Amino acid sequence: MTVKTWRCHICGDAYIGEDRPTHCPFCGAPDRHLGPAEDYKEPTVDNLTEVSKDNIFEAIKLEVDNAQFYFCASRNAKDIELRARFKALGKVESEHAETLAKIVKAQKPVIDRDTTGRHEDDTALVQESHDREQKAIERYGKFLGEATEPRVKEVFSALVEIEKTHMDLADKK
Ligand SMILES: [Fe+2]
Ligand SMILES: [Fe+2]
Question: Which letter does DSSP use for residue 18 in this model?
Answer without folding.
Answer: S
